[in-house]
Amino acid sequence: MNLDEIKQLIELANESGVAELEVQRGENRVRIRRAVNSVQDYVVGEPRIATAHPTAPAAGPSGPSLAPAQTAEDSNLIVVKSPIVGTYYEAPSPDADPFVGVGDSVRPGQVLCIIESMKLMNEIECEHSGVIVSLYAENGQPVEYGEPLMAIRPH
Length: 155
Hints:
This protein has one helix and eleven strands, in the order αβββββββββββ. It is mainly beta. The chain folds into two domains: about 1-35, no CATH class; about 40-155, CATH 2.40.50.100.
């Protein structure tokens, strides 16, 4: 891979708006990562999965309960969105513990989940310090580019 090819890949990443692009040709590999959060993203809708809420029934044996609508105090949440189209995985393997759960503290650089795309496992890393307050995506389900994955309350 030469310098002109790398420049073309950078232009492609900028034009397409993807957060991260990794290309491997033989033994050559290049990863291009853009800063995607120049403007904060905020919660607009309600999450599909969250911890039990005082006004909601407690989670049963099948998992967390559905979350109630967001309150005014939750308007400063940061929504982590999928940077690519693929399949969402909450853990590194089916028998492993999830990377994060509701109530977990997170820090920049920490792996939040994996998005499998075109047989590549892409680790999605946290860009903010805070606490996970909601999970939007379900393990093993397809996600679209820009689809909310989880919400973080910043410290």
